[in-house]
């Protein structure tokens, strides 16, 4: 959205020995992406340039840091807003490497999907099988080239090593209002390959992903069945939660004028009357009953 004043986001790399970075502004104070009230919705490019070395150090992962502007005069939410960093890797020109592509996007409940690709940077001498898994199986499932009783794998042969191998993620739906949940796709090393060109034991970078929640906390109150009629007329309405709580929620229930009606709910004791929502019954209708007081 449009800021009310210029927002300058500092840009840097976590390992300056691996790459240099350039952005909109590049001066003695640093590198910055500068968003004004005019150009805020235009694409601003960050350019990375690899630094060459003479070391056979394999693929080196690092981050492009996008930091917050803590000094902007903006008043609509950009002051101190810290964007996510970007995972990158420098591929060595002296050894084997594993190329992990960018994720197509975050997952969205329920059932949203995202993909990314993986390939090798050089031909192996034998098949390389890389195990693939997720750090939090309650957030997503993963599929790869091989899916059997022993696990899921990306399988690179001497013929298909430089083809893109796709990893597909599918969001797991839950009933919890737990917000955006970050997790990792683990791509582990093949410690059993017969390859002799550097892929045995080579562990590629993991991939950061997030699941976007489709639930939000809320209390759903139904319509009252009607007005009360003296003497002792009754009316009811229902209440339930919009998402699963992590613990029991007790909502106090009362009437503003006890001379006109009495109220009953799930719990009625010396401390008061309550609607009690547990992790099991949160989405069931809980009834509130009103009874007219005769005068």
Extended strand count: 24
Structural class of the helices, strands and pairings?
mainly beta
Secondary structure tally, helices: 0
The radius of gyration computed from the alpha-carbon positions, rounded to a whole number of angstroms, is 29 Å
Strand content: 35-45%
- Principal-axes shape call: elongated
Helix content: under 10%
Through-space gap between termini:
59 Å
Summarize the biggest pleated sheet: 6 strands, mixed
Low-pLDDT runs of 5+ residues are none
Let me know the average pLDDT. Answer: 88
Strand order of the largest sheet: 9-17-16-11-14-13
User: How do the helices and strands follow one another from N- to C-terminus?
Assistant: EEEEEEEEEEEEEEEEEEEEEEEE
Describe this structure in words.
The strands form six sheets. A six-stranded mixed β-sheet has the order 9-17-16-11-14-13, with no helix packed on it. The protein has a five-stranded antiparallel β-sheet with strand order 3-4-1-6-7, with no helix packed on it. It has a four-stranded antiparallel β-sheet with strand order 8-10-15-12, with no helix packed on it. Strand 3 and strand 4 form a beta hairpin. With 295 residues, the protein is mostly beta strands. The mean pLDDT is 88.
